[in-house]
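Session log. Operator J.P. requested a structure for one protein chain; no other inputs attached. Running the standard single-chain path with C-alpha cell output.
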Amino acid sequence: MKKVLVINGPNLNLLGVREKSVYGSETLLDIAKAVNDESLKLGLDTDFIQSNIEGEIIEKLHSARGVYDVVIINAAAYTHYSIAIRDAIKAIEIPAIEIHLSNIHSREEFRHTSVIAPVCVGQICGFGKMSYILALHAAANLQT
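Structure written below.
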C-alpha cells in the first residue's frame, strides 16, 4: 500500500473562518475527512498534518524518508519564500505534489511565484478541496 503524507502549512488551521471568499467555508477537518475517505477508495495509507511552524514542516519532511512514497504539500504562504522547505523537499528525494486551495496565479503578484514548484513533480491549484483529491489521484498513479 502506497503511503502518502499530506502537509498543511500556516494559517490553514483557520480554514472556514478566514477569508471565506478565497478559501471557502470548509474547515481543515472537513478537508482531512475528504482526504481520508478518498484515500481509502484509492487504496492509499495517508497521514494528514498541519503546522504553522516552518521548522516543524521541515522536520516532518526529513522524517518522511523511508516511510512515505509521496508527499502532498500545501505550504501556504511558505510556498512563496521558504527556501528551507524547498531544500527539504529536494533533499528527501520523495516525489512531492504542491497544492493550493486558491489559484495562486490569479491572486496578488507576490503569490504568483512558488519557490517549491521546481522541486515538486507537479502543482495543483484553484480547485478548493478538490485540489487535495486531485493530488491523491496523482499520487496513486505516480510511479515511485
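Operator note: The longest helix spans residues 28-42.
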